[in-house]
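Mods, move this if it's the wrong board.
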Amino acid sequence: MGKHLGRLVGLLVCLAAVAVLGASSASGLPRSVNVLLVPNATGQEPHGGTYPTTGFPGGFAPTFTSGSLSSIQNAATDPLTAYDTVVLVQVCGIDTYLQNATFKSRLNGFVSNGGKLIIWDSECQDTSYSHFVYPFTTNNPGALGSNSGSLNDVEKNALSDTTTGSPSFVDLPLVKSDTDAVGDANVMTSQDPHWFVDLSATNANNVTGPVQTYARYGSGLIIYNGLDMDVLSNGIAFDPASTDGTVQLGRIWLLDLLQPWNPDNLSGAVKVFGLSLSVTPAAPVGGTSATVTAHASILSVKQTGVVVTFTVTSGPNKGVTGTATTDASGDAVFSFTGDTLGGMDEITAAATLNNTPVSETAKIVWTPVVTEVRIPSNELTSSYLCWNREMVDPVAYIDKVADELWTTGNYIEPQAILGNVVGGTNVGAYHLVCNAKAPLAETEMSVGGSGEVYDAQAVREYHAEHVDGNDLNLYHIWK
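Not the wrong board. Structure tokens:
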């Protein structure tokens, strides 16, 4: 392994570790494949409309199965485990089922274990999600047949995008003017911070709020949609260039099914209620500046003049703090310079919205600054003999790294620990830790010739967190 390859592997290991922090062990899915419609494609209380289950573009052909609400509640074996996606279709009496322990446990478990749950409660006036895992309330006009109101794309993503040519393009003005999907829409009126906004609408009651939202729960994804589905049916097309509002509404249904999860790659830019955080650049270099932006929103409406306090709660820059006030865009911006050693910070933003304390946490992964440290030949001592007993002139071995030195049979794995030790081998701010196959066991490491013995696994964990997480080149130490 060359020195540059070693660094690359170290970086990939670091990035992989960060990815694990935000995802469970459940496998990610690129789209819905095996879908359970509860109770069926027309809904528990049909008010018109049928979800298309055929004719999707690009060879997309998921399997759809109808399943009763009572089977989720009463069946001896949980029926949800056979599916990757569950759709609740116009289940206006959902709260009755959510109060049943078995039903709620199975639904929650389905999502938490890696399923995708889609909720369309079109024209349900008496619906309540007060017992849902993330409770919410909605304003419900009912079956007015209204094409009034407005529909806005809050977050351009895989669920919707008004940019012409985008794979997730939807002509939202056409959906509003050519159908009653918006006028009759149920819009969120509650303030649960777990929900992120994709679309917002103003319905026939002149109430504005989120109409398509999403939330992550465990390894799964929940999508809520309150648009009326009256005009949907099998046989419609999904052409993004269509001037038919029915087709454009059908594209929203299609994109819900195509939406990947775990990871979902959705930005979470705007919360239904609370602060949403973003960090730029994505992987700042130690010693440079990183910027954290907090967006404050209530029911998808940006909030100005909100004082946000930022605090680094853990990591190499722990204790750094500052405040900023949200601007006309609802954004509060805070920047600070990271420690050159690199590592991962957790930063928390806190504020008060509607007299309610809110906070959000983000991670910042700093790339360490690499310093080349050369050990002159006249400093080669017995401390280095555990690395390679045959080494005489270090210049001749300048590109030797762990896997190459291993073949000599005299070396296991050198690491670097921050801080100097008396009687050991110190290079810059580090002391070097290594292990000869004898007399130490492979589970132990020593500090040069000092005789101090370390637990090998503990050293590797420290090295992975604070240095480069990979085999250490004798002449190149991350600091």
